[in-house]
Inverse folding.
């Protein structure tokens, strides 16, 4: 697994080839075979010299995910359980829209170390980071299954993308590259729970990738309670980091807020959220909490949700309610947890 050809970002592949005395331009040819033409062996890479093909085949096992399970929701959303080369299972969701878009919600890690109390993935702990090519393959599996080009990618499946930053960026650049998957940077959204040093790195990246941050409470005590691993990154620092992000990039950040009954849904929480957002170039995505098993957390009523939307609007804070799709197949936000493992 460590040697898999999927371990490389484009620049890393170029460098590795150079160390072997092979010209760098071969990296793009190989990536194109891997991620556009999607061949299953080096032998099929017909524009490579045959000596190079055998050399690569010896050095880097050709790994490819297989679909271990696939569920289709009545709203058309499809959830896939993918088995990676080493048996690791990871979930991916394909979300079609009426306007013809097809969005993939992909995973960045198998499991997650952050342990947010309301999240099914958080309950599992981290199994491992995904390789750049393993992230890209998820998009390709969904595209192939739907027989349609992928228009949007959200890195909102299992795992904390910024805890696997290097591999994540390697994957995003393969997705974005004009000669590879050619998915526009603005159509690729990364959601982080708020790892500040990596928000700072992301701010400096040249591409226009979209940033979303899982806030879930603008009250330090509440946030520390429901997102215990994030307590080391205080909300005031998070806000500063987001302010610099907008200042440097001119882009606004999405704040994810899953309303949880009796936890982050009272007036004080609402006012703290308003205060957090004032002066910040942001957009609030209110999410109805999705039920996960063995959890005391419950979603709020429609009425509460409407009150929050209204109150945010009244304060001129841009807010929408995010429709979670595929809830009937446990494919909605925060529900991805490997049903097979659970069983
Ligand atoms: N680790 C990243 C990305 C994956 S989670 C992050 O936390 O941002 C994708 C989104 O689903 C996050 O906003 C997360 O907080 C949210 N989420 C987690 N559990 C949920 C649940 N039970 N109901 C609704 N949203 C949930
Ligand atoms: Fe990890 Fe995100 Fe779930 Fe928190 S919400 S446990 S960071 S996947």
């Amino acid at each position: 697994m460590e040697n898999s050809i999927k371990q490389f970002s484009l620049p890393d592949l170029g460098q590795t080839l150079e160390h072997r005395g092979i010209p760098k331009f071969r990296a793009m040819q190989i990536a194109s075979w891997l991620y556009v033409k999607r061949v299953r062996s080096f032998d099929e890479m017909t524009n490579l010299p045959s000596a190079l093909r055998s050399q690569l085949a010896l050095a880097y096992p050709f790994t490819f995910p297989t679909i271990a399970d696939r569920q289709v929701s009545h709203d058309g959303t499809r959830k896939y359980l993918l088995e990676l080369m080493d048996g690791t299972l990871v979930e991916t969701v394909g979300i079609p829209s009426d306007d013809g878009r097809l969005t993939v919600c992909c995973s960045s890690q198998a499991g997650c170390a952050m342990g947010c109390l309301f999240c099914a993935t958080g309950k599992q702990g981290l199994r491992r980071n995904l390789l750049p090519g393993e992230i890209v393959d998820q998009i390709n599996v969904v595209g192939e299954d739907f027989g349609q080009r992928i228009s949007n990618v959200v890195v909102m499946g299992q795992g904390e993308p910024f805890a696997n930053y290097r591999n994540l960026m390697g994957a995003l650049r393969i997705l974005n590259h004009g000669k590879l998957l050619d998915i526009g940077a603005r159509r690729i959204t990364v959601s982080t729970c708020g790892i500040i040093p990596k928000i700072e790195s992301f701010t400096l990246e040249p591409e226009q990738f979209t940033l979303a941050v899982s806030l879930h409470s603008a009250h330090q005590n509440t946030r520390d309670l429901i997102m215990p691993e994030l307590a080391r990154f205080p909300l005031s620092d998070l806000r500063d980091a987001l302010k610099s992000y907008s200042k440097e990039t001119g882009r606004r950040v999405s704040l994810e807020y899953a309303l949880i009954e009796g936890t982050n849904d009272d007036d004080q929480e609402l006012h703290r959220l308003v205060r957090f957002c004032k002066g910040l170039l942001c957009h609030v995505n209110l999410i109805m909490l999705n039920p996960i098993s063995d959890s005391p957390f419950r979603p709020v009523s429609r009425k509460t949700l409407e009150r929050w939307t209204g109150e945010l609007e009244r304060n001129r804070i841009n807010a929408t309610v995010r429709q979670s799709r595929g809830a009937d197949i446990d494919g909605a936000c925060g529900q991805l947890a490997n049903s097979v493992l659970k069983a």
Q: What stands out?
A: Residues 112, 114-116, 119, 121-122, 159-160, 193, 214, 334 surround iron/sulfur cluster (ligand 2) (CB under 6 Å). Residues 132-146 form the longest helix (15 residues). Residues 5-59 form a domain with the DNA polymerase; domain 1 fold (CATH 1.10.150.530).
